[in-house]
Amino acid sequence: MSNKQVFFLFAFFISFSAWAQNTSLRAWQFHALDTAYMKKALQVAPDYNINTIVMSHGALNSAMELYEEEFHPKTLSDQGKQLKKVAQLARERGIETWIWVHELEDIPDTFKIANKVNLDHEGLWGYLAKRYEKIFQDYPEFAGLQITFHETEYKIFDNDQVVSKMSMPDRFEQLIKTLNDVCLKFKKKLVIRTFLYESAEYEWVKEGLLKSDNSIYVQIKCVPNDWQPFFTHNTMIGAFPNKKQIIEYDASAEYMGRNFIVWAAPHYFQYRWKHAVQFPQVVGYNVRLDHSGYDALFTPNEINIYALSKLMDDPAYDMEQLWREWASKKYGEEASAAAMEILRPTFDMVNKLYFPQGVWFGNHSKLTHYEYAENRIPYIAQWDKSWQPLVDELMNPTKETLLRLVAEKDEALVLVQKALWKLQESKPLFKESDFEDLNERLLFQLHLTMLYKSNVKLYWGVKLAKDDPFYIDYVKNELKVIRAYGEGIPPHIKNKKHNWLLDPLVVEKVAKSIEKQLASIEGDKAK
Fold first, then answer.
1. Where does 23-113 have alpha helices with state H?
2. Among 173-187, 198-212, 404-418, 480-494, which stretch is predicted with the lowest mean pLDDT?
3. Beta-strand relationship, 217-221 and 244-250
4. C-alpha of 5 from chain center
5. For residue range 377-435, what is the model confidence (pLDDT) as tens digits?
6. Preceding amide of 104 cis, omega within 30
């Protein structure tokens, strides 16, 4: 063990007693406007001591979605009315409801110059304040407001979308102050989400937050960008010494199969939570439950939510004990040992499936087209320079690189097949519904892994083809393979609701992106 690791463990244990009793905020976040699912989740929320729910993404993306046309109580949207009813039900159970919205959004032309929002317009900030005053008047059930600055209509830090004489940090500070003044007036919580893409952007929001009122909460992803398990910890955790901080986690498996497949990773959540709770400012977590209508609750992946619940009380919770508890609870005592043997390897299965050698490759759990991979593979080195040599190799591969990447997919296939064999062998121990559920998920995983193996051969094969003509035919032959896989996707999987992981249209998009590269290579060689 290195000196660095020893110091980390020492710091972790000596600081534990000072902050353990303060971690009490437990939030579940909904991404889809499925009130039946929300109500079902609220029924089991007490089992996990959940005290907050958050409406985001497909459930609520912007403030204007709460109204039909204007901020007037007679024009409450159907979406808003549905969320109001869920919030009322949650409040009856002692659970707060927060709304996650994007700003800046839906800004009137009055506050624009040449289609850019004028942050220096004297009326803009008053307009935004009235927007949220109206929301809290019409929706008193909402106890908190959560703001994200990226993936918005107008980014306050993007000079192509806004104009201002203010510095970047001052823009963040002004928006935060405007919204916090409203929240303080109505006795609501304001939660500022730090998620951005680039290092400079993080520094701007950090400076703006440090100058902001200490009544606000800061929500920080456990990783510095999107949900890549090999990313370093987010350095924003603990960066605000006088503000309460919430750690954001993803149990919706956005990049790990979106809960179509099994991704049982309690030890991973322990790894991330142990790091977070070194910092006394951390008061709890917000975990995403669902994505595109496929949910972690009531699936094998619920073990990740169960783990967070246990880790909240004890970050050093014994993972062996947790596995035994969960497997018995989910599958019954008789099937628990077999269930553990089937589920434990799924963390490695998914990593070998989606993250070649640990780098970002999977496109939100879908197959990956050429341009996406070119952009994402280098990303991990932006946050941790020790990855740069591997990134350089993957961006400029050799024959040996390709062989290693293909072997990794073969390892993933073996793991899935072993899990399927174990499931078949243990069928008498499982309830029929549990057996069918696991069997379907693992078969889905098997088909997806075969496609991803072909995806990897195509992407790195076409990179090699730029210098070695042998790989031109290699790629052409593999294009036939991936298209055959696409055509062979079983109808019951192809037609599954919200399925775009195993979708022939996605397969064809990947194939065409490779053909485009191949045509360019062949064109260059013909000159």
1. 35-44, 78-92
2. 480-494
3. parallel
4. 27
5. 999 999 999 999 999 999 999 999 999 999 999 999 999 999 999 999 999 999 999 99
6. yes
Distance, CA of 272 to CA of 249 (rounded, Å): 9
- Nearest-angstrom CA–CA distance, 358 and 371: 19
pLDDT band at 73 (very low <50, low <70, confident <90, very high): low
Q: Do residues 264 and 470 touch, judged by C-beta distance below 8 A?
A: no
Instruction: Give the C-alpha separation, 100 to 96, whole Å.
Output: 13
Q: Which residues pair with 54 in a beta bridge?
A: 29, 98
Q: What is the tally of helices (H) and strands (E) in the chain?
A: 19, 13
Instruction: Return all residues near 150 (Cβ < 8 A) that are at least 6 apart.
Output: 195, 196, 197, 201
pLDDT at 9 over 50: no
Give the pLDDT confidence of 92-149 residue by residue, as tens digits: 999 999 999 999 999 999 999 999 999 999 899 999 999 999 999 999 999 999 999 9
CA distance 132 to 106: 13
Q: Tell me the three state secondary structure of residue 409.
A: helix
CB neighbourhood size of 434 (10 A): 17
Residue 47, both tokens: 């089992």
What are the distances in angstroms from CA 427 to CA 134, 178, 260, 419?
57, 59, 21, 12
Give me the residue label for tokens 């994505």: 291
**Positions of E strands within 227-380:** 244-250, 282-288, 290-291, 294-295
Rounded Cα distance between 301 and 307, Å, is 10
Cβ neighbours of residue 393 closer than 8 Å, sequence gap 6 or more? 401
- In 3D space, the residue among 184, 182, 37, 24 whose CA is nearest the CA of residue 96 turns out to be 24
Contact 53, 29 (CB under 8 A): yes
How do residues 306-340 score in pLDDT, each as one tens digit?
Answer: 999 999 999 999 999 999 999 999 999 999 999 99
Q: How far is CA 138 from CA 192, 278, 442, in A?
A: 22, 40, 46
Q: Whole-model pTM?
A: 0.93
Tally of residues, the chain: 527
Convert 228-256 into a string of H (helix), E (strand) and C (coil): CCCCCCCCCCCCCCCCEEEEEEECCCCCC
- Tokens at residue 514, please? 């490779």
Q: What proportion of the chain, given as a percentage, has pLDDT over 90?
A: 87
**Structure token pair of residue 86:** 């869920």
User: Residue 409, by phi and psi: left (phi above 0), alpha (psi -120 to 50) or beta?
Assistant: alpha
Q: Which residues fall within 8 angstroms of residue 387, CB to CB, at 6 or more apart? A: 358, 359, 380, 381
The two tokens of residue 438 are 């696991």
Q: Which two tokens stand for residue 58?
A: 């497909």
Instruction: Give the span between the Cα atoms of 102 and 190, in whole angstroms.
Output: 13
